[in-house]
Amino acid sequence: MDLKLYTYWRSSAAYRVRIALNLKGVAYESIPVSLAPAVLAHRESAYRAVNPQMRLPSLDVDGDVLIQSMAILEWIEESFPEPALLPADPILRAQARAFAQLIVSDIHPLQNSSILGILRNEYEVSDAGVRRWVHGAMQRGFEALEALAANLPADPFLFGGHPGLAEICLVPQLYNARRFDVDLSPYPRLLAVDGAVSELGAFKAAHPDMQPDAP
Ligand SMILES: N[C@@H](CCC(=O)N[C@@H](CS)C(=O)NCC(=O)O)C(=O)O
Fold first, then answer.
1. What residue segments make up the domains of the chain, in order of their start?
2. Which of 114, 133, 146, 207 has the fewest CB atoms in 10 Å of its CB?
């Protein structure tokens, strides 16, 4: 199978997919698409032809293009079942999915670069206002995640003996939080999970700084 991942080193949605492919031990080729404000290669016609939404990531599977990181993660899980990204128990599976969705659906969209651009350019929100918006979105989300994590066994992973969907979504969101200087000290459980998985090769290799297009 020939896999090409359209990615950008600092894209947290692409970071999720990189971690999952690494955890499954699946080889892929990285095709960098720059989201840097001076380049915006994702808005050019070449990438629009790949993904009409002009967002990252996209995964080309033998010529079929998949978009949306959660759909891609589900395809990865269905195509490469081991190691499982979700626990076996249906209740725990729903809880792991909810943990991930809280990040993917409720935190990340509020701090995505094009949304912040709209706030700045169309609504004339100041840099300080945008920063408050981003911090608020992350703090509300992390507060809920910390409470959810506090009810889970300190394994050190969230939903079982190895990292899965929850960690795949959490680690890139914490990376974004650090980029925006969000104080993470109120979330010790989340930081403990982050510390535990950051030691693993699959997470290390997926880190933005390790990507071929990182400066
Ligand atoms: N829900 C989408 C979000 C994708 C997304 O917003 N990706 C960001 C990078 S992390 C992007 O391409 N931003 C460029 C833009 O918004 O123009 C997913 O999970 O794949």
1. 3-83, 90-202
2. 114
> What is the position in ligand 1's atom list of the atom closest to the CA of 72?
20
Q: Does ligand 1 have an atom closer than 6 angstroms to the CB of 211?
A: no
CB neighbours of residue 5 within 10 Å: 20
Structure tokens at 197: 């998985």
Burial 135-147 (b: 16+ CB within 10 A, else e): bebbbebbeebbe
In this prediction, the residues of the chain whose per-residue pLDDT falls under 70 are none
Ligand 1 center to residue 88 CA distance, Å?
A: 30
**With a 6 A CB cut-off, is 69 part of the ligand 1 pocket?**
yes
Residue nearest atom 15 of ligand 1, based on CA coordinates:
114
Instruction: Give, using CA atoms, the residue closest to atom 1 of ligand 1.
Output: 68
Residue in 131, 139, 149 with CA at minimum distance from that of residue 183:
139
- At the second CATH level, the architecture of 3-83 is 3-Layer(aba) Sandwich (3.40)
Q: Which fold has domain 90-202?
A: Glutathione S-transferase Yfyf (Class Pi); Chain A, domain 2 (1.20.1050)
Is the full-model pTM beyond 0.85? yes
